[in-house]
Amino acid sequence: MLAIIGCGNTNRSDDGVGVVVAHRLRALLDRLPRQARMPVRILDAGTDGMAVMFAARGAESLIIVDAAQTGSEPGAVFEVPGHALEAPPRESYNLHDFRWDHALYAGRRIYGEAFPCDVMVYLVEAASLELGLTLSPPVAAAADRVVDKIMARIAGRTEAGHADATTDDGDASPASRNGGHRSKSRVP
User: Fold this and answer.
1) Which of 6, 62, 138, 169 could be cross-linked to 119 through a Cys-Cys bond (beta carbons 3.0 to 4.6 Å apart)?
2) Contact yes or no for 9/47 (Cβ under 8 A)
3) CA-CA distance, 56 to 1, in Å (whole number)?
4) pLDDT tens digits for 134-184?
C-alpha cells in the first residue's frame, strides 16, 4: 500500500499546499473505476506530525507533500528522499513541535520493518506563509505538477499489478490543522 500524506496549515496561504495536493489526489482517485485503482491511503495531516507517523505505519511506500522556505523561486518543487530529511525530535512538552521529519525518524525506530523504507518528500517553495486561505499562483501551479507526478507514480504501480485503491478520510482535527505556525523544512 502507498500512503500519501499532505501536511501544512491551510490558514497560512502556501503552507497549505500539501493539504491541497492530498485533497486533489483523493478527488482524482475517487473518480477512477475500482478495477483501475491500487491500494492508496491519503491523509490530510495538517500540522499533526504524530498523525504522519501513525498513518505511515504498515505502508509499503510513503509520499509526503509540504511547503518549504529555502529562498528558492516560489513554486519550485524539490523531490527529496525521506531518509535525507529525517530528524530526531527535540525535547519538548508540546506535540505541535513534533513535525513530519521527526515522524520519519521516530517511526522508523518505533515500528521497525512496519515503517516504509521507500519514502519520497515533495517540498514546494512557498511565496507566502501569511494568513490567508488561497495558494499563490506559482504554488498553485506547483501543486498541479506535484499531483501529476504522484498520479504518474500511482499509474506505474497500477500497471505493476496493484489493485483496489482506498482513501482514508482521517483528516486531522481542525484544531491540529489550523493551530499556529510551524517552521518549514529546509532542503539540505
Assistant:
1) 62
2) yes
3) 10
4) 999 999 999 999 999 999 999 886 666 544 443 343 433 333 333 333 334
- What residues are paired with 120 via a beta bridge? 63, 81
Integer Rg of the chain from CA: 15
pTM (2 decimals)? 0.84
Beta strands in 82-145 (DSSP E): 118-125
Distance CA 115, CA 45 (A): 17
- In which residue are the cell numbers 490567508 written? 132
Residue 160 is predicted with a pLDDT of: 60
pLDDT tens for each residue of 34-81: 766 778 999 999 999 999 999 999 999 999 999 999 999 999 999 999
50 and 101 in contact (C-beta within 8 Å)? no
CA distance 142 to 140: 5
36, amino acid identity: A
Given a contact cutoff of 8 angstroms between Cβ atoms, the answer to whether 142 and 77 are in contact is yes
Provide the CATH topology of domain 2-178. Rossmann fold (3.40.50)
Neighbours of 58 (CB within 10 A): 13
Single-letter amino acid, residue 17: V
E strands in 50-117: 61-68, 77-81
